Amino acid sequence: MPDRYEVKRFRTAPDGSPDTALASAWVKAVGSGFHDSNRNDTFVDKILAMYRTDDRELTGIYQAAPVAPHSLGPDVPVATFATLRKDLNIGYGRQLETQLVTAVTVRGTHRRQGLLRRMMTEDLGAAKAAGVALAALTASEGSIYGRFGFGVATFERSIKVDTGPRFRIRHAATGSVEMADRRVLLDLAAGVFDRVHRLTPGSIVRQEAYRHTVSGAFGRDGSEDDAIRCALHYDASGRVDGYASYRFAGWDAKPYTIELVDLVAATGPAYLELWQFLGAIDLSERVSWESAPVDDPLAWALEDPRCIESADQRDMLWLRILDAGQALAARRFSADGTLVLEVADTLGLAGGTYVLNVSGGDARVVEAPPGTVPDLSLGVAELGSIYLGGVSPVILAESGRILEHTPGAAFRAALMFAVERPPHCLTHF
Ligand SMILES: CC(C)(COP(=O)(O)OP(=O)(O)OC[C@H]1O[C@@H](n2cnc3c(N)ncnc32)[C@H](O)[C@@H]1OP(=O)(O)O)[C@@H](O)C(=O)NCCC(=O)NCCS
Asked: Which of ligand 1's atoms lies nearest the C-alpha of 113?
């Protein structure tokens, strides 16, 4: 039977080239998949310019046979999928290039026919063949991606912070905070983020869109967002080492609320002093933040930690090991020792039995000779979950997702895979 569908993979070509129409229809299809309001041409042009900077690869699946009369044309993809490659901080400042999967949509009338499976398996296979050891995504639903070998590796939560009279932070300022024109973030945001990224396991280098959205240069409808405000933190020498981007939620939101768009601080003092600034904004009694870290220094610095009302703790980064040997060898480990890991992978990309030998924190990884008894048996998704040190192998063993053959091996793995601070991914993609 002829294939009902045709797959096209393309990169965003320079403005005005024939492929621009293809890419433009693709962007609009993604918007439709995520229930966005209609994306106008100016919006699409700006998005495509950012895609070019990130060198995104766009995948679209198109109907090969004539489409039904009056329905969306054959140039509108029925499924979309995009990838870009950015560095992931895998602990102790080490970086590993990672295939980021995003913009996954399948039109309702074409769902459950294997289109996602087709795009995903082809793409992961190609990434591995190109030498990329890791893939990652963020998920709209928790039940979709485990089957493709992705495991939850970092978490985040939403918080509402009461900035009324009981909001007091135990910290004597060492730097200062000033308000700035929001557009300075177009130049400053990436540099500040880069410092934070290097210090934060689980952090992914941000895509081009970030500096445009946090500065308000690219609002929800693609135009300037004048509601965005910006505060900069300066260290004692006057260097900018943190910023907050935020907006007032409006006079109808009670209590009056400041909504954080982005808070990036390269040092502990910068973080706390930006919070001191946010807590002191007049005519507001609350700060809300949708992407707050789970392990938050703010909670420990507040005189009353119950100022923080936390909700919706959720999975954030899902990690997929594509090449177990390469990924393990790239990590620095927190404890020396030997661990034999039997990894199962239904997609046949990263399965095998690996001897992980760590000495002085550095790893040597070899495939185990046939007949070697493993210390732990686990799926590739579980390996993705423990890889950044954010999920305990002991808990996964208790849940039945890791099988412990050698007593104590899960705890040994927990010590070895630990990283220098709780992993946290500040980048949504
Ligand atoms: C989620 C979505 C991409 C799935 O696409 P699809 O083409 O229908 O998926 P497939 O037919 O390839 O199914 C692949 C597998 O995933 C399963 N699956 C698909 N969607 C699922 C869901 N929402 N929940 C649980 N399982 C799901 C299928 O049952 C199938 O399982 P199997 O291959 O093990 O039998 C599609 O429903 C969609 O566009 N949703 C809205 C946008 C969205 O949520 N995107 C994800 C952003 S992270």
From this structure: 11
**Domains within the chain, CATH numbers bracketed:** 5-132 (3.40.630.30), 156-313 (3.40.630.30), 324-417 (3.30.1050.10)
Residue 16 has a CB neighbour count (10 Å cut-off) of 7
Task: Convert the pLDDT of each residue in 267-313 to its tens digit.
Answer: 999 999 999 999 999 999 999 999 999 999 999 999 999 999 999 99
As a whole number of angstroms, the distance between CA 285 and CA 330 comes to 46
Give pLDDT tens digits for 191-228. 999 999 999 999 999 999 999 999 999 998 899 999 99
Average pLDDT, the chain: 96
Task: Identify the residue whose C-alpha is closest to ligand 1 atom 43.
Answer: 105
> Tens digit of pLDDT for each residue in 22-64?
999 999 999 999 998 878 888 999 999 999 999 999 999 999 9
Q: Which residues line ligand 1 (CB under 6 A)?
A: 33, 104-106, 111-117, 139-141, 143-144, 147
pLDDT (average), residues 358-379: 97
Q: Which atom of ligand 1 is nearest to the CA of 34?
A: 42
> Can you tell me the mean pLDDT for 407-420?
98
Q: Cβ(48)–Cβ(42) under 8 Å?
A: no
Atom of ligand 1 nearest to the CA of 105: 39
Ligand 1 atom with minimal separation from the 147 CA: 34
Q: How far apart are CA 394 and CA 186, in angstroms?
A: 43
Q: Which residue from 78, 109, 111 has its CB within 8 A of the most atoms of ligand 1, so it is best to mutate?
A: 111
What is the side-by-side strand order in the sheet with 362-367? 362-367, 352-359, 337-344, 376-379, 402-404
Predicted model pTM = 0.96
